[in-house]
User: Which sequence fits this backbone?
């Protein structure tokens, strides 16, 4: 992976400043069926290619980000504040 | 031919020009009783035990690269059975017992060396956790010894016992743990399976899984269509990709784990030592290089290479444990792709498709499991029933709430 990650607030910063959480998926409604919740908690597409993840800029602005990367080439396509919110692939 | 001291002597007299190939390079047949996807340690061991234990020899192992090119040749070669939970411990102990007789069994020198695995503890709480784990191991008939600081100091005087942040208080030792030459394992199983009639087909990538009426009929490959009675998936880090060809979504994420080897040194570290405060494990190979590693990088990856941040982290943890490491030079670093499961434990089970079987989710502990994984997967393929030691490693355990979570981290694969 690249040694720099782009932060929408701080610009390119060293990867060590960030903590990765994992798949950025849309959270189901509280009353969604058990199948939907099972899928959300346990199942992953785990794609080889573009993938959206939550990263926390722990040692920087401390904002949660959604970073879209390529899991095979490690290219970073997009980085935005998680509060902007959008539907993403698990 | 059978390998022996006599055969080495005899071939030596003839200038070692007459050794035959250890396995054939067959063209795929049109149909096999069992096709296994993945020619790594687990796939080859599965084929070996299918032929040897269960008498099923019309088997093909399909490998997209060359055998041993994946994780079986990329790990840090450690074997152990120091697990806490009921669902794991008997399985890993079964694996340890198979390791103990493996070289005689498959007539290949895999350099199984039971030099001991020591996990260091650094606090009272960690000592209590290790005591519990050691007791669980002993209740399952596995050897475990809790060492105090003085005993560890006798074994490994060069550790940083008085580290200001993580002083070493003692360790949990499994003397039967140790190391094995990892590529020798792949070659030994390949040779043993091939000699019993299994076709090992290298450079043959599976590109599709053909299905009819809820059953698998065969696989599309770069060498054409290959029909099969049963299909077993043992594709490690690429399990999700292969399962997707059968329309399945798995409870897995693929992550990269790095490993390192130093320049050759004089004998320095006898066994395997792990740092309890960070994540660092080290042993010394017979050539003298220190073989070591740490945590996974933490982000999803299919690239067999890691990030410098993790290299730095591993080096820091190593130096906190053994200050003398600051003066060694690292020769090589590499990465492997791990199939991290949602509870940190593996899956050996049937799938919703009738004749499709899954072996996956080994996280970064797959190497030590190789013999038992192969044996249990072969048992499942041959008898359609789980081996007693692998009966909790079910695919549906996540949905049913029967997780096997050694670390208690929950559904967060990068923390297992």
Assistant:
């Amino acid at each position: 992976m690249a040694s720099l990650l782009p932060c929408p607030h701080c610009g390119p910063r060293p990867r060590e400043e960030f903590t990765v959480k994992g798949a950025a998926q849309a959270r189901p409604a509280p009353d969604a069926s058990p199948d939907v919740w099972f899928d959300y908690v346990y199942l992953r597409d785990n794609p080889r290619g573009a993938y959206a993840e939550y990263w926390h800029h722990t040692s920087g602005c401390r904002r949660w980000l959604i970073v879209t990367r390529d899991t095979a080439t490690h290219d970073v396509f997009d980085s935005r504040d998680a509060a902007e919110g959008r539907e993403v692939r698990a | 031919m059978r390998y022996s001291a006599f055969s080495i002597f005899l071939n030596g007299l003839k200038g070692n020009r007459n050794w035959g190939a250890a396995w054939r390079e067959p063209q795929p047949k049109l149909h096999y009783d069992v096709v296994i996807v993945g020619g790594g340690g687990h796939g080859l061991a599965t084929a070996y035990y299918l032929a040897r234990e269960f008498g099923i020899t019309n088997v093909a192992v399909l490998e997209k690269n060359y055998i041993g090119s994946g994780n079986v040749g990329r790990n840090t070669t450690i074997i152990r059975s120091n697990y806490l939970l009921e669902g794991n411990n008997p399985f890993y102990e079964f694996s340890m017992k198979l390791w103990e007789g493996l070289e005689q069994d498959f007539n290949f020198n895999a350099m199984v060396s039971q030099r001991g695995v020591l996990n260091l503890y650094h606090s009272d709480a960690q000592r209590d956790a290790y005591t519990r784990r050691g007791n669980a191991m002993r209740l399952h008939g596995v050897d475990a010894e809790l060492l105090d600081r003085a005993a560890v100091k006798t074994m490994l005087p060069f550790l940083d016992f008085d580290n200001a942040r993580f002083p070493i208080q003692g360790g949990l030792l499994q003397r039967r743990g140790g190391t094995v030459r990892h590529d020798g394992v792949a070659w030994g199983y390949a040779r043993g399976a091939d000699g019993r009639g299994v076709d090992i087909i290298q450079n043959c990538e599976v590109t599709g899984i053909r299905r009819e009426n809820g059953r698998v009929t065969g696989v599309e490959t770069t060498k054409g269509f290959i029909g099969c009675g049963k299909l077993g998936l043992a594709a490690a880090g690429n399990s999700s990709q292969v399962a997707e060809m059968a329309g399945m979504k798995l409870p897995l994420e693929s992550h990269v784990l790095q490993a390192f080897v130093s320049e050759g040194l004089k004998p320095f570290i006898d066994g395997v030592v792990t740092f309890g405060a960070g994540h660092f494990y080290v042993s010394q190979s017979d050539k003298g290089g220190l073989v070591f590693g740490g945590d996974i990088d933490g982000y999803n990856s299919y690239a067999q290479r890691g990030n410098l941040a993790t290299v730095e982290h591993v080096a820091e943890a190593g130096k906190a444990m053994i200050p003398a490491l600051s003066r060694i030079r690292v020769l090589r670093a590499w990465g492997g792709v791990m199939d991290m499961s949602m509870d940190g434990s593996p899956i050996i089970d049937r799938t919703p498709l009738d004749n499709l079987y899954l072996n996956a989710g080994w996280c970064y502990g797959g190497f030590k499991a190789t013999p038992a994984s192969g044996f249990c997967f072969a048992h499942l393929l041959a008898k359609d029933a789980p081996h007693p030691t692998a009966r909790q490693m079910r695919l549906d355990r996540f949905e049913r709430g029967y997780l096997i979570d050694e670390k208690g981290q929950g559904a967060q694969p990068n923390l297992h």
Observations:
- Chain A has a mean pLDDT of 92.
- The helical segments of chain A are 34-42.
- Chain A has one helix and six strands.
- The first helix of chain A runs from residue 34 to 42.
